[in-house]
Design goal:
559 residues; Rossmann fold; Glutamyl-tRNA Synthetase, domain 3; Ribosomal Protein L25, Chain P; 4 domains; seven-stranded mixed β-sheet; 29 strands; elongated; aa-tRNA-synth_I_CS; ATP binding; Glu_tRNA_lig_a-bdl; Glu/Gln-tRNA-synth; glutamine-tRNA ligase activity
Length: 559
């Protein structure tokens, strides 16, 4: 049976139609244009995968271009983080570009627009300019400075450039149409004065271009063929085309802006302004806090590049915004880690188990499979002894027939080890269980082939040998917000919905094979979930982040 051909998404259909028309394959070029005012988040990951994925499909270059036009909010730290994230996802950019590379060209073009009567310096306050914009149903009114002479405009613009005018005293506006049905075409601002050093140009410039002016012109300079933006930029397309028409010549290749719908993720926010608030207010520790929806946070939590790319591919690109449940992202992580993560044993809520008929002082090393999903993963040796830790919830003094774990008088198997039978408990004065006493069947060793080892028991427990166990700090993460759309509740601040239990730090015990684990190494703690080594971890103090559980428990808890 022939393999089913994957249908094209609407973005790919646009490109295919252009190739059938007047575009040549060698004309194709894409770009990913982050603004370096924060860390990239899961929404950016979809855009990264879209643009770089198109580059791979069509064997076309993809530029990484930083739209660094606002020195107030931009930092070198964010540039470095963005480059690290894109590279971690497995993509290579053709050129590393910056809007600031084009500051001189943008300025020269602006001067030409003034000379041609297409731009003017406005000396009104920002409030007056906003008021004169009008409304979507009423036309705006012209600025009293709209008809300044070319000479006066050039002189003022030069003063702005040289830092001779105060911030906010003047702006440069395009002269388009104050009655346009598109509010963005009502003489948009092209330049404003900002007397702040830039992370690349330092104090060279005292004026900075607005996004709408820099965006299209940067695409034109780089000869980007298709400039893909999210839907909120659809009204900007008319201005994008108008600006490029003012600087291009007949016969030159013109970029095309097209829009796709943003995908929102439940139980989080993806506004960089709101993510910055979480950091600034100390609600999370940093931009790469594992609770954050940033790519850096997801990486630190233990997500793989493949999981994020599979997530982006599975939700696709569309023309309508929708909410993606975070459980789908977790499913993608779980599915990928299941194939890759070595299996180990860790106990997070320990209670002592004593095998009373096992020789005191004796120990043995048992063979354990590393990953049943990967034959090449091999096996490892796990120490076994008389005293073990098991999970507290894996034992009940008495239980009904549906409880398949350890109870008094019944048998279970210890993973990779022996069949044991609950015999007695030791409690403190308040009735809390301190120790569970059991006996084991010496002939029931896993894999030994004996008749006793083949005996069927309904429960299998994970464990660690107390004598050999490594103490570990384990960070258990939950949804950052209790509300599905925390920034979508009318008259409520999104911070009101912060989950107070989004992080729970506990002490657990893990098998000794993890002593050599390195930062970001990933494991499946058997019967619990997937974990990775945090950057705070040391040889003397292991720190694990819980990536995701073996199953989606959130929906069950909500019910």
């Amino acid at each position: 049976m022939a393999e089913e051909k994957k249908s094209l998404n609407f973005i790919e259909q646009i490109i295919e139609e252009d190739l059938k028309a007047d575009y040549k394959k060698e004309n194709l070029m894409f770009r990913f244009p982050p603004e370096p005012n924060g860390y990239l988040h899961i929404g950016h990951a979809s855009s990264i995968c879209l643009n770089f994925g198109l580059g791979e499909k069509y064997e076309a270059p993809v530029n990484l271009r930083f739209d660094d036009t606002n020195p107030i909010k931009e930092e070198r730290e964010f540039v470095d983080a963005i480059k690290r994230d894109v590279a971690w996802l497995g993509y290579e950019w053709a050129k590393e570009c910056y809007a600031s590379d084009y500051f001189q060209q943008l300025y020269d073009w602006a001067v030409e627009m003034i000379k041609n009567g297409d731009a003017y310096v406005d000396s009104q306050t920002s409030e007056a300019i906003a008021e004169q914009k009008g409304t979507p149903t009423q036309p705006g009114s012209e600025s009293p400075y709209r008809n300044r002479s070319v000479e006066e405009n050039l002189e003022l613009f030069e003063q702005m450039k040289n830092g001779e005018t105060a911030e906010g005293a003047h702006v440069l506006r395009a002269k388009i149409d104050m009655a346009s049905g598109n509010m963005l075409m009502r003489d948009p601002i092209m330049y404003r004065c900002v007397h702040k050093p830039h992370h690349r140009t330092e104090s060279e410039w005292k004026i900075y271009p607005m996004y709408d002016w820099a965006h299209g012109e940067s695409d034109f300079i780089e000869q980007v063929s298709h400039s893909f933006c999210t839907l909120e930029f659809l009204p900007h397309r008319e201005l994008y085309n108008w600006f490029i028409a003012k600087v291009s010549k007949e016969g030159e290749f013109i970029p095309k802006q097209r829009e796709f719908a943003r995908r929102n993720l439940s139980h989080t926010v993806v506004s960089k302004r709101k993510l910055a608030q979480l950091v600034e207010k100390g609600i999370v520790q940093s931009w790469d806090d594992p609770r954050m929806p940033t790519i850096s946070g997801l990486r630190r939590r233990g997500y793989t590049p493949e999981a994020i790319k599979n997530f982006a591919d599975s939700i696709g690109v569309g023309k309508r915004e929708n909410m993606i449940d975070v459980s789908h992202l977790e499913f993608c992580a779980r599915e990928d880690l299941n194939k890759k993560a070595p299996r180990v044993m860790g106990v997070l809520d320990p209670v002592k188990l004593v095998i009373t008929n096992y020789p005191e002082g004796e120990e043995e090393w048992l063979e354990a499979e590393n990953n049943p999903e990967d034959e090449a993963a091999g096996t490892r040796q796990v120490p076994f002894s008389r005293e073990l830790y098991i999970e507290r919830e894996d034992f009940k003094e008495s239980a009904n027939r549906k409880f398949f774990r350890l109870t008094l008088g019944k048998e279970v198997r210890l993973k990779n080890a022996y069949i044991i039978k609950g015999e007695d408990v030791v409690k403190d004065e308040e009735g809390n269980i301190l120790e569970i006493h059991c006996t084991y069947d010496p002939k029931s060793k896993s894999g030994s082939g004996t008749e006793e080892s083949l005996r069927k028991v309904k429960g299998t427990l994970h464990w660690v040998s107390i004598k050999h166990a490594l103490k570990a700090e384990v960070r258990l993460y939950d949804r950052l917000f209790t509300e599905e759309a925390p920034d979508g509740v009318k008259d409520r601040d999104f911070l009101e919905f912060v989950n107070p239990d989004s992080l729970n730090v506990i002490t657990g015990y893990v098998e000794p094979s993890l002593s050599s684990a390195e930062e970001l190494d990933k494991f499946q703690f058997q019967r619990i979930g997937y974990f990775c080594i945090d950057k705070d971890s040391t040889k003397e103090h292991l720190v694990f982040n819980k990536t995701v559980g073996l199953r989606d428990s959130w929906a069950k808890l909500q019910k």
